Amino acid sequence: MAGSFSAVAVGSHITPVLAQQRGPVQRIVQGKVIDKEDAALKGAVVYLKDTHSLAVKSNIADDAGAYRFGQLAQNTDYEIWAEHDGKKSGTKTISSFDSKNQFFINLKIDTGK
Length: 113
Hints:
Blueprint: E1 6-10, E2 13-17, E3 26-35, E4 45-50, E5 56-60, E6 66-73, E7 78-84, E8 87-88, E9 92-94, E10 102-104, E11 107-109
Parallel strand pairs: 3-10, 3-11
Antiparallel strand pairs: 1-2, 3-6, 4-5, 4-7, 7-8, 7-9
């Protein structure tokens, strides 16, 4: 026998099953930076820290306060926080044990206004 393959019966047909090559699953984190009144904080800087390598990525919130980080490793823990006019949000954690691939995290900053 030169080679082997698996087969699956679909209806009255037998169809070979080919192994699908897939890279590692990647995650996305996105959300908004808001103040205590839930108003968008345009221009806030959002930081995403890889807790293993300590590498930090940053992103600037758009006019609606929105930010997004893509292509994040599944097996890495991250910390995320935002800063605006010298004030900082609380730090949130994204765990490698969480099986979700998409996270929506709003970061609230008390601007004191």
